[in-house]
Amino acid sequence: MKAMNDQAIQQLESILDIDENIYGVALVDGNGKVLAQTGNWNLRNDAPGVLAAWNANQGSVSISGVRYIVVENTPERLIATNATGKGHIVAVTAGPAKVIVYVNPAVGPTKVLNDVFMSALRLAKVL
After folding, report:
1. How far apart are CA 27 and CA 100, in angstroms?
2. Cβ neighbours, 10 Å, residue 21
3. Which residues are paired to 94 by β-bridges?
């Protein structure tokens, strides 16, 4: 994968503008290394575990000490939710990378899924 270019970073940051319920965004490579992330969310320690759980079809993922139950796992996407109301994780494939977003607990994760997926497709073209 090429180094992050300005266009890719702008597209990644624009995911926050899709919906006010998207609180954080990260782009990670296939090994879980964070390539870019919004300033309000640090996924550096947890991204490898998220990808490992996604690839192994595990039942949960943990981010910042919060456990999210996986409700959908396909090669193209991972959707996980916290049972105690602490939010949702939506991860989608972006070419050789993965886009991972944190979604407000007040809405369902599928509310933003299609828009995040489409943004990831556009992002994949500039990576």
Report:
1. 6
2. 18
3. 97
Please report which helix (H) or strand (E) contains residue 25, including its range: strand 22-28
pLDDT at 127: 82
Q: What is the side-by-side strand order in the sheet with 60-63? A: 34-37, 22-28, 97-103, 88-94, 77-81, 66-73, 60-63
The continuous run of DSSP H or E covering 94 comes out as: strand 88-94
Report the helix count and the strand count for the chain, using DSSP H and E: 3, 7
Confidence of residue 6 (pLDDT cuts 50, 70, 90): confident
Return phi, psi of residue 24, to 5°: -155, 150
pLDDT digits (tens, 9 = 90+) for 8-48: 888 888 898 999 999 999 999 999 999 999 888 899 999 99
| Pairing mode of beta strands 97-103, 22-28 | antiparallel
- Cα–Cα distances in angstroms (integers) from residue 41 to residues 26, 38, 126, in the given order: 8, 6, 23
Cα–Cα dist 99/70, whole Å: 16
DSSP per position, 54-99: HHHT-SEEEETTEEEEEEEE-SSEEEEE-TTSS-EEEEEEETTEEE
